[in-house]
Amino acid sequence: MNAKQLFSHTLRQAVEKRYGTKRITSSQFANAYNLITNAPITQETARKWMTGKGLPRYERLFELIHWLKIDPSDLFKITKDFYQTKHDVLSQKRGSSLNLEEIKELSRDIGRNINE
Fold first, then answer.
1. With left for phi above 0 and alpha for psi between -120 and 50, is residue 54 left, alpha or beta?
2. Per-residue pLDDT tens for 67-94?
3. 71: exposed, middle or buried (C-beta count within 10 Å: 0-12, 13-18, 19+)?
4. What is the domain range of residue 73?
5. Exposure string (b/e) for 17-52, b if CB count within 10 Å is 16 or more?
6. How many structural domains comprise the chain?
7. Which CATH number fits the domain that encloses residue 7?
8. Could you say which of 58, 59, 67, 102 would form a disulfide bridge with 98 (CB–CB 3.0 to 4.6 Å)?
């Protein structure tokens, strides 16, 4: 299970615990999340989080932790491991340092995953 899938699994478990149901749509999730935040998300963002196709930015993690009563260490470890693994893979290509293109690739990948 990769980091995105692990995050999704943790998120779905927290939603089930909070609401007592496994059946929540991305639209319902987005609507509920948007009631507790000043930075609303789209249904598409909720879908990505719930299906393991995206990770939230760190500030959104704080809101999820508070709202769904998730153990912070669980979520931060998942996201930290994801980005550290990406960095390690790119670093191993050329030894211990990254060249400019690899830094750009890592930045694009992080941007795609945290811009939800």
1. beta
2. 998 887 776 666 666 555 555 555 555 4
3. exposed
4. 1-116
5. eeeeeeebebeebbebbeeeeeeebeeebbbbbbeb
6. 1
7. 1.10.260.40
8. 102
